[in-house]
Design brief:
Number of helices: 4
Distance between the termini: 84 Å
Low-confidence stretches: none
CATH class of the largest domain: Alpha Beta
CATH architecture of the largest domain: 2-Layer Sandwich
Largest sheet: 5 strands, antiparallel
Radius of gyration: 26 Å
Number of domains: 2
CATH topology of the largest domain: Alpha-Beta Plaits
Order of helices and strands: HHHEEEHEE
CATH superfamily of the largest domain: Ribosomal protein S6/Translation elongation factor EF1B
Strand content: 15-25%
Length: 188
């Protein structure tokens, strides 16, 4: 009977140890899952706040009695959402090329109607130097029409060889999503 009790105790210890190991393996995964969900929620809140800020700027301009031409300069021109999207795409491409960078792709995303204005979004994938990227971001944030950088991902591509200067990062792979409000005369 002592041997059976010993086996049962051994099996019990193994089951408890296996359960603890399973919990230890699952805990980081659950934590990462929670962090991803939390980050996605925060991004949605941030996007909504960016739009509220833009709406507040427009409302303040109207309350101050700014003339219509000044107000219109904050918006992207376009008779339809498609034309406004094409204008934003051209503006982004010209800005990238003007700073010695290369655009791999520029994709116009679906427009959204927001408070009588249409919000046009473009996703841009490019290769750029650090200095050129800084200048492009500055131009985007300070230009008219008001352009919002919604998302930005910057990666340093992996290299087989190391650069002579260990501080040189080389060209950066950049993916950004930018948006702008447009006063559309008719739906596209």
């Amino acid at each position: 009977m002592g041997q059976n009790t010993s086996r049962i105790a051994t099996i019990g210890v193994l089951l408890v140890a296996t359960s603890l190991l399973g919990a230890a393996v699952a805990a980081p995964w659950l934590s990462i899952s929670w962090l991803k969900k939390n980050t996605a929620q925060k991004k949605q809140i941030l996007t909504a706040l960016d739009r509220q800020i833009a709406d507040a700027r427009v409302a303040q301009a109207r309350e101050r009695g700014d003339d219509e031409s000044n107000f219109k300069s904050l918006l992207l021109a376009g008779a339809t959402a498609g034309i406004a999207g094409a204008s934003l795409k051209k503006l982004a491409n010209d800005l990238v090329l003007g700073h010695g960078s290369v655009a791999q792709s520029i994709q116009i995303l679906a427009p959204k109607v927001d408070g009588g204005l249409t919000y046009i979004t473009v996703r841009l994938s490019m290769t750029s130097s650090t200095d050129a990227l800084r200048e492009i971001l500055y131009k985007l944030e300070t230009s008219r029409p008001l352009i919002f950088v919604e998302a930005l991902t910057v990666r340093v591509p992996q290299r087989d060889q190391q650069a002579a200067d260990r501080h040189y990062l080389g060209p950066l792979e950049v993916i950004m999503q930018i948006g702008v409000y447009a006063a559309i005369e008719k739906a596209s």
